[in-house]
Amino acid sequence: MQNDRSVHQLNNDYVARLRASETAHKAQKTQMGQRRRKRALGILLVFAVALVLCLWAYGQNMASLQKINQETTTTNRQLSSSKQKNGQLNQQVKQLHNNDYLTQLIRGKYLYTKNGEVVYNLPKDAK
């Protein structure tokens, strides 16, 4: 076994250029890694902003949809009520074409009497 002192490093131009090249290569690798990290961070940031905007728009759309659904429900109730009232009014129109009903309505509501009739108003029972 040889002594460690027997190994000497060469300090010539070639070794110096080789060391400088290795140092430059390491610096270049470090710089490329930093660039890649910055680029990845930028892309991630763009996607994060896009995601936030999409979620915000989704929330706005859901709120708008809920409001429209409430308005639709209210409108449907009003429509149902109007249809029911329309049915009642149509029934009254049909009854107004009936002479017996019309006579009864005029005599009862407007206290119309025939010649020689006497109408007596009786008090209604108080409950």
From TrEMBL:
<dbReference type="InterPro" id="IPR039076">
    <property type="entry name" value="DivIC"/>
</dbReference>
<feature type="region of interest" description="Disordered">
    <location>
        <begin position="71"/>
        <end position="93"/>
    </location>
</feature>
<keyword id="KW-0472">Membrane</keyword>
<dbReference type="InterPro" id="IPR007060">
    <property type="entry name" value="FtsL/DivIC"/>
</dbReference>
<keyword id="KW-0131">Cell cycle</keyword>
<feature type="transmembrane region" description="Helical">
    <location>
        <begin position="40"/>
        <end position="59"/>
    </location>
</feature>
<dbReference type="GO" id="GO:0051301">
    <property type="term" value="P:cell division"/>
</dbReference>
<keyword id="KW-0812">Transmembrane</keyword>
<keyword id="KW-0132">Cell division</keyword>
<dbReference type="Pfam" id="PF04977">
    <property type="entry name" value="DivIC"/>
</dbReference>
<keyword id="KW-1133">Transmembrane helix</keyword>
<protein>
    <submittedName>
        <fullName>Cell division protein DIVIC</fullName>
    </submittedName>
</protein>
